[in-house]
Amino acid sequence: MAKRPSLTDITSLTNSSAINTLSQNWDAIEEAFDNTLSLDGSTPNAMNADLDLNGNGLLNVGAIDVENLTLNGQTVTDLASVPEWRSAWVTATSYAKNDLVKTNGNVYICLVAHTSGTFATDLTALKWELMVSKGDSGSGTGDLVSTNNLSDVANVTTARANLGLGTVAIESTVPVAKGGTGATDAATARSNLGLGSLATENSITTSLIAAGTLVTEAEGISSNDNDTTIPTSAAVKSYTDGLLTSGSVGPTATTSGTSFDFAVPSTCTRIVVQFFGVSLSGTDDILVRLGDAGGIETTGYYSGSRDITPVTNGLIVFVSVASRTATGHMDIVRVGSTNQWTAIHSVSMNAVSNSGGGSKTLSDSITTVRVTTNGTNTFDAGSIAVRYWT
What we know:
Largest sheet: 7 strands, antiparallel
Radius of gyration: 61 Å
Oligomer: single chain
CATH class of the largest domain: Mainly Beta
Shape: rod-shaped
Distance between the termini: 134 Å
CATH architecture of the largest domain: Sandwich
Strand content: 25-35%
């Protein structure tokens, strides 16, 4: 807005000087109007200098049309919208100008409001502009550890050390000395570890020797790992018997005769002679003798039974009365891998029981067990059987 013009007062119009002053006043008023903004938009309607409102505001402004707008010292170039993050680009979606989206690792800004179709087509149509490009890919591909197996590391020793691995990491089959099995299959692994086929059994229920497991639960030893039942002595004996290969001879009736021979393998380590109601015709006692390739040996024994004096002609079982019937057994066991044998027996008879023991060293491997008497009596009742283990 123009400033107020400076006018000169005229006191008289009688001279030419006054007339000149009047003309100058009209010139000043005209110039002032020329520097005044019109309310109706007619000319003059322009300002040639800055407008200073001295801290006051502009009221009732309809529109502002300017080339530059400065707010708090910052030049504003576009007030269309503030950029908004829209995450991943999606087709058939309405986007506004300055929306930001991500696709193929790049970030784009929307230049023109539109409904998305195909991104490549929209990009070519200048609806989007690249704002942030994704970083360049490295020379390798995939995951360094799982894909390349560190094959692109020149110093594998350093690579293992960086990963906290020892030399066992490069073993194709870890040896037993390093905590492995040294094998790629189960059978070789068991062999390398000194394990038998029993290692593959899920439970232990039947005969160990032939079938590869132990004894049956019916014999008193359960296959249940949580079973706390204490097996009977008979079950334990059955279990230990099953650990060896066994065989038997007889039973043979002893209703007549003076001696009975039972053949046994030369490899046996234990022999049990079983008596079932055996009786003699007189007052003799029963003798058990051992034989080898040289025949039945009748000397070199040391044996006693009940309270009789020890004898040297056989392993003796006390009877001494014709009416007595002997029931029980004699257990004969080899000492280590020698040909030396020890024996114990326990026999019950009518109102009498006895026990005893003895030993005998053979000249060769055992072949025969003979049951006879220490006199001339004959057998007249019962039976005898022999069981052996190798």
